[in-house]
Specification:
By secondary structure, the chain is an alpha/beta fold. It has 2 domains: 222 residues, Rossmann fold, CATH 3.40.50.1480; 157 residues, NAD(P)-binding Rossmann-like Domain (Rossmann fold). The chain contains 17 helices and 15 strands. The strands form 2 sheets. It has an 8-stranded mixed β-sheet, with helices on one face. A 7-stranded parallel β-sheet has the order 3-2-1-4-5-6-15, sandwiched between helices. Helix 3 links the parallel strand 1 and strand 2.
């Protein structure tokens, strides 16, 4: 039995899903290529990904390929209740409600996994976590799965390193057609969409501090620069810090950037990146937000304990009056600002990422008996399929190597 907020919302949700479908030609190509084969026929698949229209199209594709699909969210504030209702209308079981408490959120994850699940599609590693802890008894039935994001892969690699990973997982985030486009262009655009629609302030001329210069941080910094901001990057990796410098950004420690920044955006996958000691140094009116998977990058817990006043400044903006008399503002409770305060990545970007998810899910279903309990990279042929399908949808043709060129590139002789 599904757990959603209100089934009556399904019509609006279906409109959103159909709109997104118009801009997801790669998923449609996969549907055409595999619909007769039905490679997931009869397999129970659990999806824990930010529950909005693009994710719904992934779920519906897997259903068309024969899977029995069970869907939950991967963050309480990124679930869209009308999308959940629409999926239920399309005969997919959903366990997710926007704004769920942490206890409710994990209950929804558990209910999803209690459906004789064989394959998982995870975003952040919460399904994997439960299958290695509270619901460990269910892990023996898991063929394997896919992980969408950097944070989840960090958790998977830690399990693999300790020899505790119980089934094979594909690191979808590491695919070229994922991190080069989703993390950089998707996060870059959607983060600023969330910030601007939530605050309604000008970005041009402001000092923007971006914590972390991985592919997500690069996208956020580039988009801020394009909007006219003066961008500062903070990093712990010397190579990434040097890269940010060479890309034309100021690089400094957070304790120094805290005194300068007007808007702070975290995208590291680590905890306590912006600590209370940093917040005390910030300007009156500084704005803080996060684009990392979990709401741990800004130390909200200490901020709430130390603030002398907490108030709603505007929808999705919490104001904190500090002991020094300054006010700082946190967007979307420190959760992913691009999803909790906007609609997430652009549709065309997620078409690529979810195409990789779908193809990797098929790959695991067909090859799990030959896979060890480890983290695998996305097979190169899947990356190539998605890239070629994307180019085709754009009407772009590229050159191909001649046999003579192939021979030249694979020979040591001149």
């Amino acid at each position: 039995m599904a757990i959603i907020k209100d089934y009556c919302l399904w019509e609006e949700g279906l409109r959103k899903i159909l709109w997104a479908k118009r801009f997801m030609p790669i998923l449609e190509q996969i549907r055409k290529d595999y619909i007769n084969e039905k490679p997931l026929n009869g397999i129970n698949v659990a999806i824990s990904v930010h529950l909005e229209a693009k994710t719904a199209n992934l779920a519906l594709l897997l259903k068309d390929l024969g899977a029995n699909v069970y869907v939950t969210g991967s963050n309480p504030l990124s679930t869209q209740d009308d999308i959940a209702a629409a999926l239920v209308h399309e005969d997919i079981e959903v366990f997710a409600i926007r704004g769920a408490t942490e206890e409710e959120y994990f209950y929804h994850l558990e209910k999803t996994l209690e459906n004789d699940i064989r394959l998982i599609i995870d975003d952040g590693g919460d399904l994997t976590y439960l299958l290695h802890t509270k619901l460990e008894n269910l892990s023996d039935k898991i063929m394997g799965g896919c992980e969408e994001t950097t944070t989840g892969i960090i958790r998977l690699k830690a399990l693999e390193k300790d020899g505790k990973l119980k089934f094979p997982m594909i690191a979808v985030n590491n695919a070229y057609c994922k991190h080069l486009f989703d993390n950089r262009y998707g996060t870059g655009q959607s983060t600023w969409d969330g910030i601007m629609r939530t605050t309604n302030i000008t970005v041009a001329g402001k000092h923007v501090v971006v914590a972390g210069y991985g592919f997500c941080g690069k996208g956020i910094a580039k988009r801020a620069q394009g909007l006219g901001a003066k961008v500062i990057v903070t990093e712990v990796d010397p190579i990434k810090a040097l890269e940010a410098y060479m890309d034309g950004f100021e690089v400094m420690k957070m304790e120094d950037a805290a005194k300068i920044g007007d808007i702070f955006v975290t995208a590291t996958g680590c905890k306590d990146v912006v600590r209370y000691e940093h917040i005390l140094e910030m300007k009156d009116g500084a704005i803080l937000c996060n684009s990392g998977h979990f709401n741990v990058e800004i130390d909200i817990e200490t901020l709430e304990k130390k603030a002398i006043k907490i108030y709603e400044a505007r929808k999705n903006i919490t104001g904190y009056k500090l002991e020094n008399g300054k006010d700082v503002f946190v967007l979307a409770e420190g959760r992913l600002v691009n999803l909790a305060a906007a609609d997430g990545h652009p549709i065309e970007i997620m078409d690529m990422s979810f195409a990789i998810q779908a193809l990797c899910t098929i790959y695991v279903a067909q090859n799990y008996k030959n896979l060890d309990k480890k983290v695998y990279q996305v097979p190169s042929e899947i990356d190539s399929y998605v890239a070629m399908a994307k180019l085709k949808s754009l009407g772009i043709e590229i050159d191909r190597l001649t046999n003579e060129q192939k021979k030249y590139l694979n020979s040591w002789e001149v």
